Amino acid sequence: MVRLLAATGIGFALSCANSSTSPTPPAPTPSTSSLAVTFDENPVPFRSSGCSFSIPQGWFTQARVRETGGVTFTPTTLTQKIDGNVASVLTESFNSRFGACSGVAFTADTISANGAVCGVVGVCAVSSFSTYQFSMAGTDANGHTLTFDSPVLQLGARPTGQSIILSLEIHR
User: Fold this and answer.
1) DSSP letters of 105-137?
2) pTM of this prediction?
3) Domain presence at residue 168
4) 28 domain residue, yes or no
5) Which CATH number goes with the domain that contains 122?
């Protein structure tokens, strides 16, 4: 009986010694930046004026890009597509298209963690198109390389065969 108790006591002591070393928990995975885009209008109607100085007609609307993952994102490229094809005539930088949103802190060249940037997007053209989309590529503050595609912006029909009526009033 004494031997049985002694053997049980030794087994208990060994099991306690083994349970005191717990495995090291894995390091947490760093968060990744995440972006969400909203457009003021989608589809966007064709406008006969207000697009640009050189080509006043086209489709344009305000876009808001929000960072929702809690990690600052630094865009390095902005690619714009018309009807699914990269539009070389729309080659420009992130900073030339996006800037501060009303009431939101802004730092050039970045989209702050949980922040936003705003800009006017679209196509000023004498031709007709159906869709517009932009892509951004860059790196977040945790070193992740990311590419983000905006939703497709539908471009409304361009009026055809409509005459323009000018009105002139003379006041005496």
Assistant:
1) ---TT-B-TT-EEEEEEEEE-SS--SEEEEEEE
2) 0.76
3) no
4) no
5) 2.60.40
